[in-house]
């Protein structure tokens, strides 16, 4: 094998969770954060002078970069081996550091808000602050919409063992699950990550068997998962109430720098585009000899004997596809494979799912997934490399200008997926190969326009109900079933009532409503692909600049400035959805 399936963490901090170098790095970070917090606390409630503001801005960004570096390393440790107790202990310590840093940020923001307007214009207009002017103005404005810094500090401190503690408890629940399975005539027990790969196995019997075991496994943990989900939502709602916020979408929309009008325009277009995707699901069911697909059939390959794609083959496919769009993007992919930035080994003990995390001080990324050779695995790999490319494009910017939101982060990743998908389709030699590739593309359309919408509908209704009290597991099952049936237009023959328990995204504490940004990124990237096709090679430079600006503009400003598009109007989204579902006609022709 040319490329390693295991990532290299040693070049970052040698020694894993016992690393003395990492311990020293964290200790220094804690000292810098403590010193910064004391400075801000000692300053008092009067407006700070320009020199102090500049000093704090430099120190804030230094600690922010160190915190992101440490958090990324710990997330890698806990993901590669969920039973690593030292890594879990580091998680709590980094969360404590993060909470202390948030106190500093709240005080810093409050001090920005105290600066009189005239002096603010004079100070923030300095050339050395030009690259962070947008986030500075953003932070100054948001400070007026929160509790006093002292109360925000209390909430942040309590969240370590409360809010974030419940989020980490979900990992404990996942680690309890071990699913019995027969592999090559032997009885084995699969981790959640390994079992998940069986749900889209080419063999219907394998899918059916694992789907039953999967649902049973999560049902066995449903009470614990329900308790965890209720506590997370309860914390958020209490804090929102104290701030005077009455809409649970207020924070996620602000985090994603997008308006309610843009969100509504997007979901409206998705809902209107439902019928072609329902037709695709019907056509696929016919190919499988079924009246309707089961939930676990949706992501199954349409080819009965689909060839496995080796990891080295996937590396070459992705790098070549990227090369046709951007030499820089291809070089990033080569670097990731050659320097072992990717953890892809299929083994027990790993966390389910995939992610890409950046190390801003090391100027590297690490990608986590479990690779088993499916086309979906290749798509996931391309997706995460898109994130890594985005991170590389902003790594030279000041730390505050690197803080782009999830929705535009998902734009870069899904754009990378689209590049790989289009390249593979162009290379297809037979109708069966084309059909399989179109199926893979339409699976993603279903995921982003139906599955993600089901998650959004569920979470929106869950928060509405949670404001009146805790919900039991059976009630959560009912909410999830209703959301799935609405989002899929009742096009499936069976559903996944415990999806709310099985999906990690509902339990993440950094970003509430970890769903709609995916659909935004998918559809926004679809529009970008259309522009790239029209413009040709010259678009890659404009695309790079758009990604560099993702930390210093709202999404509406990004689209207007770089694409001359209005995202709060429905037309862009309707055009994007129409492009997505256009594959259904080609799929139907090949099914004849």
UniProtKB/TrEMBL annotation:
Ranges where the Oligopeptidase F N-terminal domain occurs: 114-177
Peptidase M3A/M3B catalytic domain mapped to chain residues: 332-530
Domain of life: Bacteria
Cofactors, names only: Zn(2+)
Keywords linked to the UniProt accession: Hydrolase, Metal-binding, Metalloprotease, Protease, Zinc
Family annotation (InterPro entries): M3B_PepF_2 (IPR034006), OligopepF_N_dom (IPR013647), OligoPept_F_C (IPR042088), Pept_M3A_M3B_dom (IPR001567), Pept_M3B_clade3 (IPR011977), Peptidase_M32_Taq (IPR001333)
Entry's EC annotation: 3.4.-.-
Pfam families, per database record: Peptidase_M3 (PF01432), Peptidase_M3_N (PF08439)
Cofactor note: Binds 1 zinc ion.
GO MF entries: hydrolase activity
Similarity annotation: Belongs to the peptidase M3 family.
PANTHER family: CARBOXYPEPTIDASE 1 (PTHR34217:SF1), METAL-DEPENDENT CARBOXYPEPTIDASE (PTHR34217)
The name this protein goes by in its record: M3 family oligoendopeptidase
């Amino acid at each position: 094998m040319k490329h390693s399936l295991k990532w290299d963490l040693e070049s970052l901090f040698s020694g894993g969770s016992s690393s003395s170098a990492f311990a020293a790095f964290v200790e220094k970070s804690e000292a810098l954060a403590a010193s910064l917090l004391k400075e801000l606390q000692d300053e008092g409630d009067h407006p700070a002078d320009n020199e102090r503001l500049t000093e704090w801005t430099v120190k804030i960004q230094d600690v922010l970069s160190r915190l992101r570096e440490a958090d990324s390393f710990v997330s890698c440790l806990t993901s590669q081996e969920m039973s690593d107790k030292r890594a879990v202990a580091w998680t709590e310590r980094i969360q404590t550091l993060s909470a202390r840093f948030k106190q500093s940020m709240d005080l810093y923001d409050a001090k920005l808000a105290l600066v009189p307007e005239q002096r603010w214009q004079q100070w923030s207009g300095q050339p050395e602050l030009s690259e962070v002017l947008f986030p500075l103005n953003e932070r100054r404005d948001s400070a007026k919409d929160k509790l006093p810094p002292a109360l925000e500090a209390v909430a942040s401190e309590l969240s370590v063992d409360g809010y974030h503690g419940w989020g980490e408890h979900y990992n404990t629940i996942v680690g309890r699950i071990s699913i019995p399975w027969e592999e090559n005539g032997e009885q084995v027990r699969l981790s959640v990550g390994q079992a998940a790969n069986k749900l889209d196995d080419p063999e219907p019997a394998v899918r059916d068997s694992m789907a039953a075991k999967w649902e049973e496994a999560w049902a066995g943990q449903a009470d614990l998962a329900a308790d965890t989900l209720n506590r997370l939502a309860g914390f958020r709602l209490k804090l929102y109430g104290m701030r005077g916020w009455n809409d649970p979408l207020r924070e996620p929309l602000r985090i994603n720098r997008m308006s309610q009008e843009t969100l509504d325009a997007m979901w409206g277009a998705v809902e209107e585009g439902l019928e072609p995707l329902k037709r695709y699901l019907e056509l696929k069911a016919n190919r499988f000899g079924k009246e309707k697909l089961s939930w676990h059939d949706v992501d199954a390959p349409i080819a009965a004997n689909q060839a496995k794609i080796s990891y080295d083959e996937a590396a070459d496919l992705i790098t070549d596809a990227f090369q046709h769009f951007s030499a820089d993007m291809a070089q990033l992919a080569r670097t990731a494979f050659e320097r072992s930035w990717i953890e892809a080994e299929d083994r027990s003990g790993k966390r389910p799912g995939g992610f890409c995390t950046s190390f801003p001080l090391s100027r590297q990324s690490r990608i986590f997934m479990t690779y088993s050779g499916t086309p979906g695995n290749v798509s996931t790999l391309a997706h995460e490399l898109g994130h890594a490319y985005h991170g590389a494009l902003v790594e030279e910017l000041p730390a505050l200008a690197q803080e782009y939101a999830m929705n535009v982060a998902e734009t870069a990743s899904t754009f990378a997926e689209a590049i790989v998908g289009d390249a593979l389709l162009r290379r297809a030699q037979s109708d069966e190969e084309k059909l399989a590739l179109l199926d893979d593309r339409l699976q993603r359309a279903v995921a982003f326009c139906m599955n993600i919408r089901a998650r959004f509908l569920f979470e929106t209704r869950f928060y509405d109900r949670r404001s009146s009290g805790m919900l039991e597991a059976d009630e959560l099952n009912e909410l999830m079933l209703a959301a799935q049936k609405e989002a899929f237009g009742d096009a499936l023959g069976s559903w996944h009532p415990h999806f709310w328990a099985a999906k990690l995204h509902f339990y993440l504490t950094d970003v509430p409503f970890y769903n709609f940004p995916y659909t935004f990124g998918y559809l926004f990237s679809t529009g970008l692909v259309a522009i790239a096709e029209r413009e040709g090679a010259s678009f890659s430079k404009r695309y790079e600049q758009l990604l560099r600006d993702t930390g210093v503009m709202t999404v509406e400003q990004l689209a207007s400035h770089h694409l001359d598009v209005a995202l709060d109007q429905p037309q862009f989204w309707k055009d994007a959805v129409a492009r997505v579902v256009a594959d259904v006609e080609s799929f139907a022709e090949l099914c004849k």
